[in-house]
């Protein structure tokens, strides 16, 4: 795995969702992770992305439905096999977007797909 971009704010939101009603200290203890380290992530004061091991611990103890894959996604980890795809110029444009902006792009792409399907169906009816 390699890291292609870490979204601190999105990670902080997922961290909060993963801990649920527990305090950050309780969550840190259950995960076997330093409270200070989690607090830095929560406050977006940790510049480097968390490691895969830490992400696994967070996902394993999540009560908010936060999966390992979700955590990998917002922290920017990708399989090396995906690198070929990341060299696509259109994907490079997406790199600096926030998680909310990524969702908007995905929704728009789905809209375009559905629109294209409807258009093709109308043409076939004629």
Polypeptide structure, described:
The structure is a single chain. With 126 residues, this protein is mainly alpha-helical. The N and C termini lie far apart (50 Å). It contains eight helices and two strands. A two-stranded antiparallel ribbon has the order 1-2. The chain is elongated, with a radius of gyration of 18 Å.
Give the helices and strands, then pairings.
Layout: E1 2-3, H1 8-19, H2 24-31, H3 35-42, H4 52-60, H5 68-75, E2 77-78, H6 83-86, H7 89-94, H8 99-125
Mean pLDDT: 79
Main β-sheet, in a few words? 2 strands, antiparallel
**Tally the helices: what do you get?**
8
- Runs with pLDDT <50, length 5+? none
Overall tally of domains? 2
C-alpha Rg, in Å?
18 Å
The top-level CATH class of the largest domain is Mainly Alpha
Helix content: 55-70%
């Amino acid at each position: 795995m390699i890291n292609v971009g870490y979204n601190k704010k999105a990670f902080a939101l997922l961290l909060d969702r993963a801990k649920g009603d527990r305090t950050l200290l309780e969550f840190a203890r259950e995960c076997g992770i330093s409270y200070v380290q989690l607090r830095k992530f929560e406050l977006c004061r940790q510049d480097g992305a968390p490691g895969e091991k830490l992400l696994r611990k967070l996902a394993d103890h999540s009560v908010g439905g936060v999966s390992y894959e979700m955590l990998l996604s917002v922290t920017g980890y990708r399989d090396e096999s995906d690198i070929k795809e990341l060299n696509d110029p259109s994907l490079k444009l997406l790199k600096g977007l926030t998680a909310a902006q990524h969702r908007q792009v995905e929704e728009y792409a789905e809209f375009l797909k559905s629109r294209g399907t409807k258009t093709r169906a109308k043409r076939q009816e004629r």
